[in-house]
Amino acid sequence: MRLLRTRLLLTAAALVTFLAAAPTSHAATFQLIILDGAGEGFNDTTPAAPIGGNPGTTLGQQRQNVFKAVGNVWGAILPDNVTIRVEARFDPLTPCDSTSGVLGSAGAITVAADFAGAPQPNTLYSIALANKLAGTDLATTVNDISARFNSSVDDGACLGSSGWYYGLDHQEGLDIDLFAVVLHEMGHGLGFQTFTNLSTGAFLSNTPDVFARNMLDNSSGLRWDQMNSSQRKASALHTGLLVWNGPNTRNAAPQILGHAAFVRVDSPPVIAGDKQYGTAEFGAPAPDPTLQRDVVLVNDGTGTTSDACETIVNAAQVAGKFALIDRGTCTFLQKAQRAQAAGAAGVIIGNNVAGAPPGMSGNDPSIVIPVVSITQADATAIKGQLGVGVVASIGVDVAHLAGADDLNHAKIYAPNPLESGSSANHFDVTATPDLLMEPFINSSLTSNVDLTQYVFADIGWLGTTTAVQGGDGPIASRVQSAPNPFTASTAMRFQLEHGGKTVVEVFDARGALVKRLPEAWRPPGPQSVKWDGMDAAGHRAPAGVYFWRVRSESEELIGRMVRVE
Question: Which domain holds residue 93?
Fold first, then answer.
């Protein structure tokens, strides 16, 4: 067995632990090890009113409760008999200013290879996953995951007036949902990361990790474990071409991802064609049928006149057109608000730096026009042709999935230039709906772990995985719900390897039992059990994420479903 350190350990100033366990003896159990000093971070004694289902009466208690709720979500999905130890603290993190900032970071402290139970030789696994596969703690002297969260968000040092939201109901409004951020960062620590040096393309200790073995470059047809370092370095910059090759994720993509959108310049011919684009949390979805309009550069008459950070003075020209706006100075939300007030039919925001178009955060239900971003190069090209007139279209491509290639491989975030800490470690920002493991926080995120759970199946966390290399053919998951999401009822479908008495139970996102269905003897093979969306008391279960568990004497299966109003 090889055990490798991936980063320096944080020095503990104080140590407090508690367990966050899911409602099954075989589910993952998490232990939070607090590295904050007395009276700060997870130990902060500042009084706080209970909020959004979080009963804590101090900031520290509420932060610990959020972590516990996240542990329940992951614990309901991931089977593991080895406690997962997470060391965490709140610190000021940079960069962080009035419009953007780092919210948190996390990763595996160590990795292991060639241990007893490893599915593949010569392959690195995040230590929490390695422990699960080995059935024992392979690194008893160190913890498994290291996490930090940005204390400056509450201190008012960045992100303007937005602070952390500590509720468990994802009703954060203009604040930042700590639940979603912790859920995301824990995903990294549990294995949604590559240990490849993206600046050089070199593997850690010249050994591929299981995440890298599942990444495929469509420009070459090679997986990362089939490339040399130079090829991997280049692949990390192949925007839209780097994809996830795992069969479970590919099979699940059509059930989770929506139709792709497109942003296209129709004329003049010299700049015509589909453009790389970023999406916004706010505004209307891509229009269907397609919306085609002339493009007009905004003018607010002040400073950088094209940034729409003041009232737009050429509203008469903008009305009914696509407003072209430069990124910078004020928020994306403010730009869209001013463009809509000027009568724009849609907003196209040009990046002000080289690289991929940015994802755009914010929340304003009053914005009812589509808002997209494009690269700096495309924005410059459009500006150069405004004198002859530019016509563009925004619409829906029903033949393709948003955030996937033509074969339903989910796209991996690969901007050019490289973004340290983000590139090759997230889903691409073109995914719709927004996915948990995208590089930017989105207000639409809840307790849903969407495609992420299938990535975890591909790397070995769940029993539905087969060989992670190759993966060119879809495989049938042993658990799935249909429809999912659902409104009134759904069918929980599963496949038993052995016949016998089985119990089907439904739990909410916090791990509380919602309903236990009658025990029944079932033969081996495919099964289907209907849940009518009612709890044990006969009341309609609220909208949200639910987990269902099938237990028999010889096996246990866990699935996820979402009820919507």
Answer: 2-190
